[in-house]
Amino acid sequence: MRTVNTGAIPTRKTNFTLSIQMDFQLAFNDLNSTKSQEFINTLVLQLQPLCKEAEPQSFEKVQIIKLSNGSVVAASLAEYSYLNNETQIQFVNTELEGVLTDILNNTSNLNKISQAFDNRSVNLKEITFLSPEVNNITDLKPYVDCTQFANYTAVISNGQWQCAGHCKTHPNYCNHHGECLNEIQKGPICRCYESSLQQFYGPQCEFFRRGPAFYGALFGSLAAVFLLLIGIIIAVYAKKKYTGIWKRSNSFNRRLSILEDDFFDFTNSAYHNLGMKDPYLSETYRPHLGNVDTQVQVTTDDPEVLDINP
């Protein structure tokens, strides 16, 4: 946004004279006479596009300021405005003179002027640029008006004067926690950043608070950790309990094994306990089957049946 009162800025002026080979008339001494106005209008109509060609953007006007004798010598004045642009200012101050001189000296352009005056010869006698009143972009500062905007100030940006809002001149106005908006009538306004995790607030987004999602995530994480701890505790407890049962079971089995070995072996137990020798295991009572005659027939009597009934 920029506001420069270009109408008040001084213009760059150049004076040049053309000599037209025709009879001078007394009426030309009065520029307001009919003869003078006809001559002037015809000449301006030819000069205007040529002068504009030199700098189309800043060309203001061309005018005939005097008609003199000597054939007809037309003293002319061309004006060029200064734009709110450093590049254009330097062009008008340093290059425009050469460009305009080349255009007015061009044979083709002089022939066009000649044709407008019944093919009378036309020549460029001299051209002079006055000293510039604007040397660079900083000289335009008095013509910059930002008072119509609230809290706007004039600054140079990219070679131009601009009315910059407070947001541009003070980038940290919203503390980098919000978008700064320049209201023309009210001044800077901060649109603070907000999300489900965090929120900034205040005239300049200077305050901070956590969003609902942050607490949801926090409590959710704590709940997950709590459940994980419970699971670990249960797993440890179950492991210890199972290990204890397994140990007791092994201990019980070992005790049973000892009982079986020590208390349930009744071999020779009676005799051992009485301090006696087992006769069935004695050499005296051990049968010698090798001396048995396997050819001897043995007979037995039938068993008697007792009659128990009287």
Features of the shown structure:
7 helices, 310 residues, 4-stranded antiparallel beta sheet
Describe the structure.
This protein has seven helices and ten strands. The protein has helices at residues 34-54, 86-94, 96-105, 107-116, 166-169, 212-263, 269-274; strands at 12-20, 59-69, 72-80, 122-129, 153-157, 160-164, 178-183, 187-192, 198-201, 207-210. Strands 2-3-1-4 form a four-stranded antiparallel sheet, covered by helices on one side. The chain is rod-shaped and about 140 Å long. It starts with 11 loop residues before the first strand and ends in a 36-residue tail after the last helix.
Structure, briefly:
The chain has 310 residues and is an alpha+beta fold. It contains seven helices and ten strands.
